[in-house]
Structure formats: structure tokens, C-alpha cells
Amino acid sequence: MNTLQHSIMYFCSMSESENNHSNRSQGDILKKLNIKKKKAPKERTFTEKPKTQVQAKQNIESAADKVELVATCMQNLENELAEELKVLGADKIKVQKRAVRFEGDLELLYKANIWLRTALKVLKPLFNFRAKSDDELYAQAKKIKWETVFTEDKTFSIDFAVHSEYFNHSQFAALRLKDAIVDYFREIGRNRPSVERDQPDVRIHLHINDNNVTLSLDSSGDPLFKRGYRRERLAAPINECLAAGLILKTGWKGEQDFLDPMCGSGTIAIEAALIASNIPPNLNRTHFAFESWNNYDQALLSKVLGEATEMFKPLKCKIFARDTNSQAIRATRVNISAANMRKHIILENEDFFKAKAPSEKGIIVMNPPYGERLNVSGDLVSFYEKIGSTLKHEYSGWSAWVITSEIDSFKNIGLKASKKIPMMNGKLECQFREYELFDGKLKEKKAK
Predict the structure, then answer these.
(1) Looking at the structure, do residues 263 and 400 belong to the same domain, yes or no?
(2) Can you tell me the distance from the alpha carbon of 362 to that of 398, in angstroms, rounded to the nearest whole number?
(3) pLDDT digit string (tens) for 84-113?
(4) Do 182 and 83 have their domain in common?
């Protein structure tokens, strides 16, 4: 998917298309961007010496310098992301809308990309200025000494997030920024750097809010929800960052058994296994955008990855993934294997409404079919009534969390929710509700 069409941006929630890897036709403006054919990413090795590069001032001066960084996220996952950054040792953490600002050094930048479960991107803001037109954007951007950011032998791409009445065409704003960069290099007597759509050396993020323009370097490359284990997918799979965020909101960290009774392609169960085992979600990623920066420190990244493997924890609970659909079971089995979680997850072809609870107590995180995934036998009312009845009669002693965009259907579950959390799943407004399950009536439980 084109980088300019597929932007993961702060202050902007993810759309369903961000999890769709299909190609789209290019518009006239995109054709002007001189986009090259996709190159396969280089496989990371730590035995070879770093290549000699032209020394240009880079976004982070040295490994010890602390700079401002921005981690972007989905709506209502800001607090979970901030807590993750706190654990990593980030300084001056500030929660914003669909983003968290913080300070850190080069090592923290590497750790953030590897460890953050709820972050979509980690950005390094470079320049900020004001503009009220595409021409003013071009003029201001052309004043920047771009050779201090990257050299002309590097390829680059631009993604964008534009929320402004002054800029009606987001792609054209990105095009004008591209023009400013290449024209700057030409005017200082350098060669014109090329635009590369899929695997650029440098990724520049354009963010416009009203007349405030921020240009950042993208340190992540592909969005961090692309963990690499999703080899098979069903209709509208839940985003990996959202799945991890939902689990973190429950407070579960592997202390008790875990069940996803409608597992689809297995994302929630896999993210649960990664959390319980303290395995970084992007440990096996083959490339990050920061590996093309002039100050890339191979030895430091090797150290961060090595330390991460030493922090694995043995699994102390059972994690169950169930589904009644044979295609879902097949997809989950493939994805579990790709995630190296075969020993961590118990996969069962079971009907939630007929099967017994796998253990006496535990936690359920359930993502029933809805929206694009809605294909249930019978009507929606009876489907959610059956969910409530099954939870009440078969899962006493458990805690159940349910996310759905069918907000009115919650009342058909027939149980009183102890927590109600608004969420977004792509463009769908959802709620994530907790039900504490027990024998008898609520009044009797409170009396005890």
C-alpha cells in the first residue's frame, strides 16, 4: 500500500485499511512522486561492520543525548502507552491525543520500537513552523538544511496527517514538501534524492494541525502493529496493538488462565502469550527505519536485543484459544507457529456455547463477530443473549471482558458490567466491558 495513502499518524486513529495489505491504484499526484519499484528489505546481521557513511548531522547526535520523541497510538490507549514508556525509563512523559511525548536517548529509541505493545510509530520531531498554504509550506520547508538530516544518496518517503482548513488536499501538501526537499538539494549543488515508496532509507512524517506544521523522522518504518506473525487472516482481524491494549486494560499479566473463546485468527491469544512471557512484540522484526540513519549503532541494537531475550519469563498460566470455525482454527494455528507460541497456547476447535470452561477460574477477553465480521447464526439479539447465558452458567469465578461495536447488544447479555471503556476498532466506535461472574445474585455477592 502506498506510504502516502497508508499513514500512521499521531492525533489520528487507525482505519480498517491500515490492516489491509492489498495494493491500490495510484492517482495523478502520486505518479509525480517518482516512486520506485519496491525493494526487499535487507536482513539484519550483527557480524558485519557498519558501512562508512557521509557524516551529516543526524536527528540524535550521539547515543547519550536525550531528545524529544513521540509515540503514536490508537484512541484511548494513551495511558497504557505512557505506562509502557515509564517502565522503559522514558523521561518527561506527556500524554496527548492518540500520542505520548517523551524524552530519551538512542538506546531508549531502540527499546521503544522493540518493546512497545500499544505504539503504532515512534517519531523524532525535527522542525516546526507555521504555514497557511501549500506555497508557504514549500517556502518554509525549503529553508531547512536537509543535508543535516540525510544525504542525497539516500531515498526518502513522506507520510502525512493533515487536520487543517488551510490545506484541503493532504497529498498535495506532501507533494509540495517533496518538491521543497529535492529543490533544496539541487540548489546547493547536490544530486536530487529519489523517492522510494516501500523501503526508503529515510521516512519523513508531515503533521499539520491548523497552521502548525511539524516535520519528524519516522524511526519505526512499517507500523509497529505489523509484528510479522500474521501469516493467515480472516475478515477484519483485530489490530495487534489494539489487542495488546485491551489485555493491558484488564490488568492481566499472566497470573491466571486466559481464554479467547472466539479467537478468529488468534491475535488476542498471541498477544496474551507475549505479555505473560514478557517477550517484546517486535523482537523478531527484520528491519526498523532507524537502521538507515547515519547514527545507527549496530552494537547498541545488538545489546538491546540481547538484553530483551534475558527478560523472558516462564509461562505460569494456561492460555486457551477456541473457535468453532475450522478456517479460524487453521489460521490461528499458522499464526501461532509464526509467532513461536506453539508451546504457550492451547488451540481448541470448540463452540463457546457448548464447551465447558477450561478451568475453574481465569479471565476471558472476547471479540465477538460484529461489523464486517458479523456472520452469526440466528439474530443478533439471541446471539448476545446466548453469550450472557453461557458466561453466567459456565464461567462462574471468571472475569469476562467483551469488546463490540454493537453497543445496543450489550443489554442483551443480561449482566451488569463493572467497567465500560470506550474504544475505537478502525473506524468502528466500540465499548470494552468487564463482567465479574459469580454464582447467585449481585445483591447476595455484595452482602458477603
Answers:
(1) yes
(2) 5
(3) 999 999 999 999 999 999 999 999 999 999
(4) yes
Summarised one tens digit per residue, pLDDT across range 150-206 is: 999 999 999 999 999 999 999 999 999 999 999 999 999 999 999 998 889 999 999
Given 167, 188, 218, the domain boundary residue is: 218
Number of helices followed by number of strands (H, E) in the chain: 12, 14
CATH of the domain at 162: 3.30.2130.30
How many Cβ atoms are within 10 Å of 397's Cβ, its own excluded?
13
| Domain assignment present for 413 | yes
Residue 424, amino acid: M
Question: What is the predicted pLDDT for the residue at 186?
Answer: 96
Of the candidates 292, 296, 297, 60, the one whose C-alpha atom is nearest the C-alpha of residue 199 is 292
Domain count, the chain: 2
Within this chain, do residues 173 and 133 fall inside the same structural domain, yes or no?
yes
- Per-residue cell: 12: 489520528
**What average pLDDT does range 342-368 have in this prediction?**
97
Do 122 and 182 reside in the same domain of the chain?
Answer: yes
What angle (nearest 5°) sits at the alpha carbon of residue 370, between those of residues 368 and 373? 95
Answer yes or no: is 292 within a domain. Answer: no
Burial of 416 (0-12, 13-18, 19+ CB in 10 A): exposed
Distance CA 71, CA 118 (A): 9
The answer to whether residue 323 is domain-embedded is yes
Global pTM? Answer: 0.84
Indicate if 383 and 419 belong to the same structural domain: yes
Q: DSSP labels for 272-285?
A: HHHHHTT--TTTT-
Helix (H, G, I), strand (E, B), or coil: what is residue 406?
coil
Residue 84 CB: number of other CB atoms within 10 A?
23
User: What residue numbers bound the domain in which 56 lies?
Assistant: 16-43+51-218
Compute CA 331 distance to the chain's CA centroid, rounded to the nearest angstrom: 21
In tens, the pLDDT along 206-262 reads 999 999 999 999 999 999 999 999 999 888 889 999 999 999 999 999 999 999 999
Q: Write the CA distances from 447 to 36, 308, 418, 440, 441, integer angstroms.
A: 69, 47, 17, 12, 10
